[in-house]
């Protein structure tokens, strides 16, 4: 059995076959995640609170509480907390070939 408290995130490469990691991230207003991509990971973002602007490739959309965002491998993506309150979200990273 694997049980672990989440403090920002944890690596699962030794416990799970395809799940790389789970992260609990908070972004302050105006803070963001720089443009990047993953050559061998898909990601899911689940927004717990706040709102922001998600960009995946050429698409840009506002996201907020309870939204789930799928990010395919190789897709350049970024997220900006465009709100006036902290934004918190969970990221699930999954290995793909």
Provide structural commentary.
- Strand 1 and strand 2 (19-27) form a beta hairpin.
- Helix content is 0%, strand content 57%.
- The strands form 2 sheets. The chain has a 5-stranded antiparallel sheet with strand order 1-2-9-4-7, with no helix packed on it.
- It has strands at residues 9-11, 19-27, 32-36, 41-49, 51-56, 59-64, 68-71, 77-80, 87-95.
- By secondary structure, the chain is mainly β.
- The protein contains no helices and 9 strands.
- It is globular, with a radius of gyration of 14 Å.
- The protein has a single domain (14-95), classed as Jelly Rolls.
Write the layout of secondary structure elements.
Layout: E1 9-11, E2 19-27, E3 32-36, E4 41-49, E5 51-56, E6 59-64, E7 68-71, E8 77-80, E9 87-95
Antiparallel strand pairs: 1-2, 2-9, 3-8, 4-7, 4-9, 5-6, 5-8
Key phrases:
Jelly Rolls; 97 residues; 5-stranded antiparallel beta sheet; globular; 0% helix; mainly beta
Q: How would you classify the helix and strand content by structural class?
A: mainly beta
CATH topology: Jelly Rolls
Alpha plus pi helix count: 0
Low-confidence stretches: none
What is the helical fraction, as a range of percent?
Answer: under 10%
Question: TL;DR?
Answer:
The protein is built from no helices and nine strands. With 97 residues, it is an all-beta fold.
């Amino acid at each position: 059995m694997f049980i672990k408290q989440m403090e920002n995130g944890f690596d699962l490469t030794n416990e799970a076959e395809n799940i790389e990691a789970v992260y609990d991230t908070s972004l302050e207003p105006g803070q963001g995640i720089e443009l990047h991509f993953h050559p061998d990971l898909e990601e899911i973002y689940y927004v717990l609170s706040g709102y922001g602007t998600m960009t995946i490739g050429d698409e840009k959309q506002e996201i907020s509480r309870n939204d789930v965002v799928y990010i395919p491998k190789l897709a350049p993506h970024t997220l900006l907390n465009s709100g006036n309150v902290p934004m918190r979200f969970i990221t699930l990273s999954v290995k793909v070939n």
